[in-house]
Amino acid sequence: MPPTAMSESAGEDKDWTVCPPTAQNLAARAESAGEFKDWEIVSSSAFTALDGVDKSALQELKSYARPPAGLITVMNAALMALGHSEKDVSWAAAKKLMSSPDTMNKAFRDFDLKSIDAKMMANLKRFAEDPDSQPDVVMKKGKACVGVALWVLAVYEYGSQ
């Protein structure tokens, strides 16, 4: 198995849930591993965080009638990256995506990298550059959304190169 950003042979801190990467250092970690455009490296921390989301955490998020602004931003960015039109981006659509951990993880794992285009990148750039969208800030508002934020940042980093 080739080394990833979280493998021992890469010499990196393996527990990114304690200190999640930012959009800026995802690229630096991937580049230092010599595989800058490798989706597996860029997305590994996102999938690790998403794998840790359980049904009760999603239920808590879905129970919000008016979720904190940061959570709406994260989920809207994820929906746009997944191909939802701006008209279809809503908290109701986000709740549908969060119907179960398996449903959510499948949507993110099945993401077609070829669907990344200029319009998507423009939308994701606003998200990636927003300090309130960084994983450490998102964690304070809804732990279950950290993996989603990391995934959106990974899509942005991959598409930026």
From TrEMBL:
Residues 44-156 form the Dynein heavy chain coiled coil stalk domain. One of its GO terms (biological process) is microtubule-based movement. Signal peptide: none annotated. GO terms for cellular component: dynein complex. Pfam families: MT (PF12777). One of its GO terms (molecular function) is dynein light intermediate chain binding. InterPro entries: DHC, Dynein_HC_stalk. This is Dynein heavy chain coiled coil stalk domain-containing protein. It comes from Polarella glacialis.
